[in-house]
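Example 257, ligand zinc ion.
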Amino acid sequence: MLEDLNRRLASVQRLNSPADAVYGVSPRARGRRDNGVPGNAFACPVCGGVYRRFLPFGLNGRRNARCPGCGSLERHRFMWMHLRDRHRLMQRRLRLLHIAPEQCIHDILSEIPGLRYVSADMFDPAADRAADMTALPFGDASFDFAICSHVLEHIEDDRTAMGELFRVLVPGGRAVVMVPIEMDRPETYEDASIDTAAGRDAAFGHPYHVRICGADYPDRLRDAGFEVELAYSRTMTPHMRRLWRINKTVLFDCRKP
Ligand SMILES: [Zn+2]
């Protein structure tokens, strides 16, 4: 996914989009120094590295965004901590489907002995399976757990994709889903008539996004049958978020009843 993002940067730059509009994240670097790591340093929960600084990322070179060790971005670190601490993936025996696998998350998940890990992507030849998320090549109830981050905003028929996610999970199965979202926007904005990269960039802030997700977006996952809880990074203390460089974001913790 990161490689994919990097490939997209060139076209995004041609369109001259501000990074904040593209990535929906603004730079922030306040807060107290953490007492668990020496000096004024950052720690990466994904690879375990401790660094003086993280690398810039995004069109405006968002400071201290990307881990120099594993390449994780803010949202990857938040998601990983949620997977590790809320779902204890390190300790469980699960069949796990990772859609559009981020390299840093792939690397850590594929090393967990108890996980039967399968990655799927429409474009990435390194993924285990080539897969269109609106027609997943897996049987019903094939997986106990699924991860799908920053994918649905690229899919016009996202409701079908959510239905597929639901279908391939066992009852009681979980899906951790993230999209770029503006929680202060009550309604998701989309317009299927806008179908060019330039038009989508102007309308949705990214040449390959087909909507701007608003606060109502989790309802689509509920419509697909999921029970959905929202997990906010803001429940971490500011100095924890600063230590791990995690922005204010939210993920959807979905359960198939
Ligand atoms: Zn790292």
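Summary: The pocket of zinc ion is lined by residues 44, 46-47, 49, 67, 69-70, 72 (CB under 6 Å).
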